[in-house]
Amino acid sequence: MKLDNANILITGGTLGIGHATAKLLIEKGANVAITGRDEKRTHKAARDIGAMPITADVANPYDVKRTFKTFMDEYGRLDALINNAGVGTRKLVEELTVEDFQEVYSVNVFGAAMMAARAAEIFKKQKHGNIINIGSTAALNGYAGGSVYASSKAALRSMTQSWQAELRKYNVRVMLINPSEVTTAFGQQDRRERDSEPNKLRGEEIAWAIKSALQMDSRGFIPEHSVWATNPF
């Protein structure tokens, strides 16, 4: 896929991986829209890198519908959806509540699925398109306190495989990128980005992986790609 003049929609694009990816893709010539739940932050983040802002919550079905209408009204064609929006919580098994699962799954699983469903409708008509889901190495290896988050990413991994089976015949590539720990605002209550730690991943490393996956000629695709810090210890 050529990135020059490609139309790309990134959820959760105001900080971290989403923002780094939007910035890199725009530098490579793509037209990018980013979504975020906070209007002020979304508009500032978009303005800083030349993206189109869409204030929306992927957990809200109305917002999902409005996001695609806004995007298509502006660009008329969608080449790639990057399902990046995500939330998490860390609790031991005896502390878990149904609400914990509902809060995280509404974004990481249900929101990602509803965004993909809308994108698939467009891609099947176009006979081409790309969906990149941002998973986690937590889906491959559970950890203490990870019941909610790790299982949500495992669900996303399973959905990715199902969508691959469904959409390949329409020339739609569905790919999963699994970052290990990234020093971003993820999991921070104040949503402020943490300082980068020299031995751990940044959003830029994941953005590079996303860009590379998209740039492969459309006759092939990478079903799943994990990105680990070389020596995080």
From TrEMBL:
Keywords: Oxidoreductase. This is Short-chain dehydrogenase. InterPro entries: KR_dom (IPR057326), NAD(P)-bd_dom_sf (IPR036291), Sc_DH/Rdtase_CS (IPR020904), SDR_fam (IPR002347). GO terms for molecular function: oxidoreductase activity. Belongs to the short-chain dehydrogenases/reductases (SDR) family. SMART domains: PKS_KR. Residues 6-180 form the Ketoreductase domain. It comes from Pontibacter actiniarum. Gene3D superfamilies: NAD(P)-binding Rossmann-like Domain. It holds the Pfam family adh_short.
